[in-house]
Design brief:
This protein is of the alpha/beta class. The protein has two domains: about 45-250 and about 330-390, Rossmann fold (3-Layer(aba) Sandwich); about 255-325, no CATH class. It is about 50% helix and about 10% strand. The protein contains 17 helices and ten strands. The protein has helices at about 10-40, 45-50, 90-95, 105-110, 125-135, 150-160, 170-175, 180-190, 195-200, 215-235, 260-270, 280-290, 295-305, 310-325, 335-345, 355, 375-390, and strands at about 55-60, 60-65, 70-75, 85-90, 115-120, 145-150, 210, 240-245, 255-260, 350. The protein has a five-stranded parallel sheet with strand order 5-4-6-8-10, sandwiched between helices. A three-stranded antiparallel sheet has the order 1-2-3. A hairpin with a 4-residue loop joins strand 2 and strand 3. Helix 10 packs parallel to helix 15 (about 335-345) and helix 12 packs antiparallel against helix 13.
Length: about 400
């Protein structure tokens, strides 16, 4: 094998590169220290803050979850020799307090008493945060992981812009830099914030009006980042994964409408937000001033189809409504399909909740995304058989607890 000989010129280039890197690090440290002394700790960007909402730390010889930037701690149950399953996701998984019946891991534990279920949900957690957490899961001695994530990747995109990443080293670098003024300043200069162009209003149960297409255009990129982060999660978790793409409450109106027309905005704002009557008539009225292809218009036609018992037509309009929503607080159907395709690519199990039950009753939800007790129970019922098969447990021999 030919030995490579470095010339004096090569050594000079390497030496200058090393000095340049050292100089940058020194400048970073000096600037950061100066700003911290003069102003105080920097604010965490919204997306980065969400990736740090759940970290595992050791306290008194046991592992606990450090939740959020407020540093709250929650301990996990001791290993009692049963198969252990961690459920990863956002607030739809956690539902604080974690022992309430609106929490589907609670119902999953009741459905599988021979398994120890650990709730690893964290409000606002996106796929990048869960990918980061996956590298720490070995300390919990898990036998499988259930992943219910995706909504926050799109909601965070709208609510503040999320600096998501595409490789584990980038996730680590993001975590390292997140608490610095230098990072916060650079972020303001180079990161596009969709929220700036959307002109959000915050009235509860009212449509968010916007004339910007930016959030919809970003949805494709958000889906790509979601899938890339989930690949990192699968690689780092080191245990079998059961993928459960999230579902939404289709009985709630879409969150956004792309319009700057005062007549359109007035008409849309005065329409009912939940299970409207005379859906077809209202859709025609809306189309006259807002155009035919709007998220709200398709949602109204979907409810008209539900009323006449046409489930296929209803689902078609619901899907069109989600696709046209310019305020992506919910995971679009295209991202759900991408997550199911990822599971197939990895040869791992997946539960298609909408495939099992295309239109869920409104009573199964508390709001647009979060489950009621009956909804949480239904999710657990659909997940339990696949999880039992994944863990190679014997067939169920006892009835589920109420």
């Amino acid at each position: 094998m030919e030995e490579r000989v470095y010339s004096s010129e090569d050594r000079g280039v390497r030496r200058r590169a090393a000095w340049a890197l050292l100089t940058v690090l020194m400048l970073f440290g000096v600037v950061e220290a100066t700003l911290r002394l003069a102003i105080g700790p920097p604010p965490l960007p919204s997306g980065v803050a969400r990736t740090q909402t759940l970290r595992l730390v050791q306290v008194a010889g046991g592992w606990v979850a450090k939740r959020g930037v407020d540093g709250q701690l929650r301990s996990f149950p001791k290993d009692i020799g049963l198969p252990r399953v961690g459920v990863l996701g956002g607030s739809s998984v956690m539902e604080a307090p974690i022992d309430k019946p609106e929490n589907f891991p609670v119902w999953l534990q009741r459905a599988l008493p021979e398994v120890q279920v650990l709730n690893l949900g964290s409000p606002g957690a996106s796929s990048s945060g869960l990918a980061l957490l996956a590298g720490e899961l070995s300390v919990l001695n898990l036998d499988a992981v259930v992943v219910y994530t995706g909504h926050n990747d799109f909601g965070n995109l709208l609510m503040g812009g999320e600096l998501d990443t595409s490789a584990r080293w980038q996730i680590r670098a993001q975590q390292f830099l997140a608490g610095s003024w230098v990072h916060a300043g650079l972020r303001r200069l180079v990161v596009r914030e969709p929220v700036f162009a959307l002109h959000l209003n915050t009235r509860e149960d009212r449509l968010v009006f916007t004339q910007s297409d930016q959030a919809q255009l970003e949805q494709g990129l958000a889906t790509e980042r979601l899938i890339t982060n989930l690949k990192v999660l699968a690689q780092d978790s080191s245990v079998p994964v059961l993928w459960v793409p999230p579902i939404s409450n289709l009985h709630h109106a879409p969150q956004g409408l792309r319009s700057g027309d005062p007549d359109c905005m007035k008409m849309a704002a005065n329409m009912p937000r939940r299970r409207p009557e005379r859906g077809e008539q209202r859709a025609r009225e809306l189309a006259k001033v807002c155009g035919v292809d709007t998220a709200l218009g398709h949602w109204l036609r979907a409810h008209a189809a539900v009323a006449r018992g046409d489930q296929a037509q209803a689902l078609s309009h619901f899907k069109a409504s989600l696709a046209l929503d310019p305020a992506p607080l919910r995971m679009p159907l295209s991202a759900r399909q991408a997550e199911l395709a990822l599971a197939a690519e990895l040869g791992q199990s997946a539960v298609d909740l909408w495939g099992e039950q295309p239109i869920w009753p409104a009573t199964h939800f508390r709001d647009t995304l979060h489950f009621s007790s009956s909804g949480a129970q239904r999710v657990a019922e659909l997940i339990a058989p696949d999880l039992r098969a994944l863990l190679d447990l014997p067939a169920e021999t006892q009835e589920r607890q109420p």
